[in-house]
User: Fold this.
Amino acid sequence: MIATSTCAATLSGRISCSGAAVSGVAVSDGLAVVHTDHDGYYTMDSDKPLGYVFYSLPAGYAPALSNGFNPQFWAPLTPDDSDEVHDFALEPADDGTRHAVIIAADTHLARRNNDLNQFRYGFIPRIKREVNELRRHYSTIHSTILGDLAWDRFWRGNDFDLHDFMDYMATCSYPIALWPVIGNHDNDPSVPAGEYTDYQAAKPWRDIVCPTYYSFDLGRVHYVVLDNIYYKNEALAGEQYSADVAGSRNYDARLTSNQYTWLERDLAMVDNDRPVVVCVHIPVWQLNNRRATVARMDDAQALCDLLARFSQVHIVSGHTHINATMHPDGYPNITEHNIAAVCASWWLTGHYTGRNICIDGSPAGYQVLKVDGDTLRWQYHSVERDAADSQFRVYDMNSVRHFYRTNATMKAIMERYPDRMDYGTLPDNQVMVNVYGYDSRSWRVSIYEGDTRLWWDLTAAEDPLHTLCYEVPCYEDLGSFTVYFGSSRNLHTFVATASTATQPITVRVTDGEGNTYLKCIDRPMDYSTNMDALQPPLAPGDVNRDAVVNVGDVNVLLAAILNPDAPRPPLPLCDVNNDGTINIGDVNAVLNIILQC
Assistant:
């Protein structure tokens, strides 16, 4: 519920670009939506329900930026019934038909676990490299962080609140426009439970960051940012709370009625055939243990009913610190991408081992959305490594089993936490592949032992590297660990059983965009925190595994064709065109790769 004034004021102003009027721009106070006229002017009667007025960025323009990243698309209002005038200046940009958006989630900066340095010297340089790479093909590049920018319980105790987050982003010279989403940890925990808790707890966000919900256009795509945290902060019986934290910081996952009113009005001007991307913090949908898509947000169906008329809708969400892709039944036009966290496991794995690994085993990372007209392409990128090295990880489970059986810390963990998966009991020669962004509708996974393709099972599994990067060092440090931060049973792990303990394992993964990723591991393979370095990605055509596609690969292929009995790389490396055999077609495929470089 929102505390509102009973007196209406008149809000007006002009939107221009280089002095020229920009007509047809949507302007809102969070409830009413009006549009600028031919001369760029807007006017509305308003009770100032949220304390600000904002515009929706039209395609072909860029917002004015504060500190190089903060879009100035809104203005605060005075808390009375006085009339106000607020003008906005846009900047010229290309039409955005081809654009890219970097979609990150859950930075959780709190001045703990060396998080500020991990962020500044890990995430920020990676984003700057990403932007430089994208600028080779896209002139329009924007970004979002899907909530939990800071961490409410540490706002005061660690002296790092939303003001500090915005200042730190400026200090780090964040390089592109950021359209942020409010998360549950971005609400003020000092606001006690009451009728207006949700509204009052979001006041710091509204004052410091931006509106809690809004929209903008890039090219043909309409982006909508929503606040799906209904903050309650109820005090639990028998619990004592400080002035900084007045309650349990609990919340419901749903939209307010005012958001639905605004959203209907916002979407009314968007054509059915335009792509829509909805940005939220808490997932609207989730996968259950049977991999069925079920509602996570209380009003998931109500939201999706509003979106059902559009030909293509993508929901992006954070909150869970895992990767998952959902296709809700009854809404064939909607796909949700739940994106793993920038902070991985709340910066703990980086603090202990220098490796930022999420609870599902995904490396800390973000999605890159590349748009060409109505075509949207998605790819998960790791903060640590290059894009092609961030799609999956392979485990020689013989080595993992040995560690579980012999390491004193691991044995103590299994004794104290018996509900964990005990990899010490595995049978011989199992291989595990964690495919972070796996989507059962469009991704393909093949696992080979030498030249033999192995049958696999898609299973719920704890990621062994996360265990090595969090549970083991934390237990050695403290004698225990927080189960909430521990390895989750992810739903994107493939398990196969090889016939030997020594033959190489090759994995080929093809994503929904048609990109192919290859890795080949020699066994036995070490189980260690730097194990990713032992399995670098292989480009299709790099059959001799020397990290470059060149004439040497042609020679290996010709030798394999002319003398099938001679030693050669495994079949999936030699079969470059993926037709099931080694022949002259593979030679031609490598030559094409070389000529295109």
